[in-house]
């Protein structure tokens, strides 16, 4: 009984990360709206200005640490281009500081891409965050972000060049999915069984009963 109690104490601090989708606009089978998508960058070629960055808001239903960003990107009307995607905090209803960024060399055909997180920033339930997209060279490069096919819309933001973000809205909302890791604590009975197994294995090793 003492050994079993010690086993429970030994593993009581263990937690396990479980992946949770906190926001998703893909249709069944990762489908999205066919077509070129929402254009960003393209200052000289499309908008005759300093180039566009675009942001789309989302609110996680569960607190997690970011583990994966999935979206769709393609090359716009430029010879080459690199897209920059970010997950950013909210400041006054527009994107604020970037929590993590990801880059994608663009090809003409829309491509589904998945970016594993390396920084794992915390996304708090009920708080607003932003998925943003822009090209590495806002003036001379152009990229397209895929549009969701399930009809999801919400607050958006637009920035021209290095100017301030301004709220905007449209009927074309980017397609993306956010997955996070949620810490889960095993049930007490599971903890005891795990701990008892660890201690039993250690005792058998000490007694010479286990060979590797």
Descriptive notes:
The chain has 212 residues and is of the alpha+beta class. It has one domain (17-186): Jelly Rolls. The protein is built from three helices and 13 strands; from the N terminus they run αββαβββββββββββα. It has helices spanning 2-11, 43-47, 188-206; strands spanning 16-24, 33-41, 52-58, 64-75, 82-91, 94-105, 111-116, 122-123, 129-135, 142-147, 156-160, 166-168, 176-184. Strands 1, 2, 4, 7, 8, 10 and 13 form a seven-stranded antiparallel β-sheet that branches. It has a six-stranded antiparallel β-sheet with strand order 6-5-9-3-11-12, with no helix packed on it. The longest helix is centred in the C-terminal third of the chain and has 19 residues, at 188-206. It is globular, with a radius of gyration of 23 Å. The model is unreliable at 2-12 and 189-203 (pLDDT under 50).
């Amino acid at each position: 009984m003492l050994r079993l109690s010690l086993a429970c104490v030994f593993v009581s601090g263990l937690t396990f990360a479980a992946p949770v989708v906190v926001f998703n606009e893909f249709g069944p089978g990762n489908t999205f709206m066919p077509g070129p998508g929402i254009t960003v960058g393209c200052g000289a070629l499309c908008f005759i200005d300093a180039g566009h960055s675009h942001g789309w808001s989302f609110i996680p239903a569960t607190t997690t640490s970011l583990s994966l960003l999935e979206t769709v990107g393609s090359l716009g009307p430029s010879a080459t281009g690199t897209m920059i995607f970010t997950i950013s905090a909210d400041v006054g209803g527009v994107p604020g500081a970037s929590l993590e960024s990801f880059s994608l060399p663009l090809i003409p055909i829309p491509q589904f891409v998945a970016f594993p997180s390396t920084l794992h920033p915390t996304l708090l339930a009920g708080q607003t965050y932003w998925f943003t997209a822009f090209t590495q060279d806002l003036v001379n490069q152009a990229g397209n972000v895929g549009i969701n096919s399930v009809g999801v819309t919400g607050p958006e933001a637009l920035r021209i060049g290095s100017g301030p973000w301004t709220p905007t809205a449209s009927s074309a909302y980017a397609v993306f999915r956010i997955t996070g890791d949620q810490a889960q604590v095993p049930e007490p009975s599971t903890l005891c069984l795990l701990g008892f197994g660890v201690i039993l294995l250690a005792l058998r090793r000490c007694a010479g009963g286990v060979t590797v």
